[in-house]
Write a structure and sequence with these properties.
By secondary structure, the protein is an alpha/beta fold. The chain contains 25 helices and 18 strands. It starts with a strand and ends in an 8-residue tail after the last helix. The C terminus is likely disordered.
């Protein structure tokens, strides 16, 4: 049975008239409510097993609230990083903005959107896939193409011998604009309520009549009486279109820019000429990213743009976003912390169905949050001690006053109690100045001061990996000696003279450009591929866990094939009786899949982050001595990346990691920030194997492993230099 989902949106602006201004670039929405409405069609007779005489009953709709009375504020020309946990609704919010579902967003605002949830089949709109990569990018700029198309149509009609053709063209243009207006009026009628809703529905009825009349006019023969007026209108419109096109880059410059963007994202000249049907999934997503970057837009929205990009592409994208027109608003969602910090100057936090704003990047937000929380915590502790002391003196004065009949002591106790009730709380306002009741606490209140409320920390996600099983006798876990590999039919080796030794506790990072052979190297390490030359030796008791970059997709396919399969049942099946039900629950619980999530929720309904945790459970149940991880952060939000990083830091086995995520490699492989945000010291670490680990980052280039003495920073610097040369061969006029 198929579920159908839709996005339902309402906000304060639905009750008021909205005047669109062509120059308006800001988005300022109050009282924003967004929900996902899922409707299940009524069951068929064959599904219900009931008598055919009984009509099937429609199923109820299920609503998932994403935002409740939130404020959406995007200032023109600013760059925002939108963060939130997996499943919090970030992609839904972005889709609601891009599809014009939120009343109050100016209708004239041009929005370019990279949607990470788009179906790859939607790339080929005509079903043939014959368009080349470059053609698709250029033809995807709807705004420019619409202007050019109208310009050609009007110019041709004015030049044609048939003078009445200009009347036909102007009729069609007016009709198309009327249809666009109709869509907006229909949306307002659907979203507004009460008196405003009634008025909007009346406007909709009138608009329906106009559209019907316009459709009828299209079918009638034009008359000479319309010629003079339409000819003048056509000339005026042509001048207006030309004026708009003059503000945009020329056709030649637009093509040069498209080539530069495609080149920066890794497309060769040969691949630019290839039909889009020949592209793999990863290259199709790069194509969609290129199309979004090239579009004429006031707002650029990028949902996980770094997926499928190597570090060269990520750094190029950073530089490109920083260099685009300062009038363009940019909103980015990404699991890559370094990327978000680099391109965003403000942070939006989607949490608890609301949007919070911070002027600064992600690292600055976290540092500010910790500082404010520590300040408020110390203030509250000091004030609690003061309150305890005052309460003690009040009780003593009351006791002595009643005992001795001293009214002065009783009055003093009453005065101090009033001060305690009215004057305890915040002594400074939000701006750090002296607290003033009339200014800082407007409206009715029970106290003279705002209470000190220590900021709640974002619920930390804690992952913990079980320790490795015993080896019984020492020795290297893995040894590769002069290993080379060549694919069948290839004339050259993909890998050449690889030498690598991995011992318990080692941290090995492998970086390199896409297609350099990293995944091939991991297949050799895990034994799924046999080397063409050289020798690979493993410890006799070695247990190895392998997370491939396709692990999540494989679990998704598995969940679709068996809708009853849960995380618990899959782990029990995988362990083949080696683990009890309780032991499986404990492993899943350590990885954040506890209770009914593990036992009752089908795998098909787990989020990307939950599937990553399940993939780890399928690896860790055997307590491996070495984990081989290939692009493990791709499907994770930055909260989960941080939790995973901390868990891997504490893991006492060896790690071999392939990743483009600079933060992840620096923390896990290079050992930066081992103190877990300053809460622990290396001296307090309970596993000497982890502290004594050999840490090395290799770059795989030209089939060989090269040690990077300065680690990820050295590779990043090399990619920055390479980025500087990209686009230098493209003439941008």
């Amino acid at each position: 049975m198929n579920y159908s989902s839709s996005i339902q949106v309402s906000c304060q602006q639905t009750r008021f008239d909205i005047k669109d201004e062509a120059a308006a670039k800001d988005i300022d929405i109050n009282g924003l409510d967004i929900s996902i409405i899922t409707k299940l069609p009524s069951a068929s007779h064959s599904e219900s097993n009931e008598s055919t005489s009984k009509p099937s009953k429609p199923r109820k709709s299920a609503a998932i609230e994403i935002l409740g009375h939130a404020e959406l504020k995007l200032r023109g020309g600013h760059r925002y990083g939108l963060i939130g946990r997996n499943g919090s609704g970030k992609s839904t919010l972005l889709r609601a903005i891009s599809e014009g579902l939120i009343p109050g967003i100016p209708q004239t605002l041009k929005i370019a959107f990279l949607d990470q949830t788009v179906s790859l089949s939607s790339i080929d709109q005509n079903g043939s896939g014959s368009a080349t990569v470059l053609q698709y990018v250029l033809e995807n700029d709807n705004y420019r193409n619409k202007l050019i198309s109208q310009q050609k149509l009007i110019s041709r009609s004015l030049d044609e011998a048939d003078s009445l053709s200009v009347v036909r063209i102007m009729r069609q243009i007016r009709h198309d604009r009327l249809l666009e207006e109709f869509k907006y009026v229909e949306k307002m009628a659907r979203l507004r309520s009460r008196a405003r809703g009634l008025q909007s529905r009346k406007e909709l009825v009138g608009m329906e009549k106009k559209v019907a009349e316009s459709s009828a006019i299209l079918l009638t023969e034009p008359s000479l009486s319309e010629l003079q007026q339409d000819s003048k209108e056509a000339v005026d419109l042509l001048l207006s279109i030309q004026s708009e096109l003059d503000m945009l880059p020329s056709t030649d410059l637009a093509e040069a820019n498209a080539r530069m963007v495609l080149l920066g994202l890794g497309f060769s000249e040969q691949r630019m000429k290839a039909p889009i049907r020949t592209l793999s999934g990863g290259w199709q997503m790069r194509l969609l990213l290129a199309a979004a970057l090239v579009k004429v837009a006031d707002v650029l929205i990028l949902d996980e743009p770094t997926n499928y990009l190597d570090l060269l592409g990520i750094i190029w994208l950073q530089n490109y976003i920083r260099s685009i027109n300062s009038d363009i608003t940019v909103v980015v969602v990404s699991h890559d912390r370094s990327f978000v910090n680099s391109v965003c100057d403000e942070t939006i936090i989607l949490t608890e169905k609301s949007l919070k704003y911070f002027r600064g990047n992600l690292d600055e937000y976290e540092e500010d949050f910790r500082s404010r929380r520590l300040y408020l915590l110390r203030m509250k502790e000091a004030q609690d001690k003061q309150i305890e002391h005052i309460q003690s003196t009040i009780q003593n004065n009351i006791k002595l006053g009643k005992k001795t009949g001293d009214d002065n002591r009783l009055r003093q106790a009453k005065s101090r109690q009033k001060k305690l009730d009215d004057r305890m709380g915040m002594q400074v306002n939000a701006k750090g100045g002296r607290f003033k009741l009339s200014r800082d606490m407007a409206g009715f209140h029970d106290n003279m001061r705002e209470q000190i409320e220590v900021l709640d920390e974002e619920r930390e996600m804690h992952l913990k990996f079980p320790p490795t099983s015993e080896l019984r006798f020492p020795g290297p876990l893995l040894s590769m000696e002069n290993v080379s590999f060549r694919y069948t039919g290839s004339s050259e080796n993909t890998l050449r003279d690889i030498n690598l030794v991995v011992r318990l506790g080692d941290r090995v990072g492998i970086v390199g450009l896409n297609g350099c052979g990293k995944s091939t190297l991991l297949k050799l390490i895990t034994g799924s591929t046999i080397p063409s030359q050289g020798q690979i030796t493993t410890h006799p008791r070695l247990k190895m866990g392998y997370y491939s970059q396709h692990s999540v997709e494989l679990l998704q396919d598995l969940g679709k094939s068996d809708l009853s399969l849960t995380a618990l049942s899959l782990l029990l099946q995988k362990s083949q009786g080696s683990l009890s039900d309780q032991e499986c629950r404990e492993i899943l619980g350590l990885l954040g899949l506890a209770g009914r999530t593990a036992s009752d929720v089908p795998i098909a309904k787990l989020s990307g982050g939950q599937l990553v945790r399940l993939a780890f459970a399928l690896i860790l149940w055997e307590r491996p001595h070495v984990m081989v991880l290939d692009e493990v952060t791709t499907h994770l939000d930055f909260y989960t990346v941080k939790a995973l990083s901390n868990a891997l830091v504490d893991y006492n086995g060896a790690l071999i990691i392939v990743s483009h995520d600079r933060y992840f490699v620096r923390l896990v492989i290079e050992g930066e920030d081992l103190s877990h945000d300053g809460e622990e010291d290396e001296d307090n670490h309970d596993d000497l194997t982890v502290l004594a680990a050999r840490r090395v980052v290799y770059r795989l280039v030209n089939g060989r492993l090269k040690v990077l003495e300065d680690g990820m920073s050295q590779f990043e610097h090399a990619m920055e230099k390479k980025c500087a040369s990209i686009g230098s061969h493209v003439n941008l006029g």
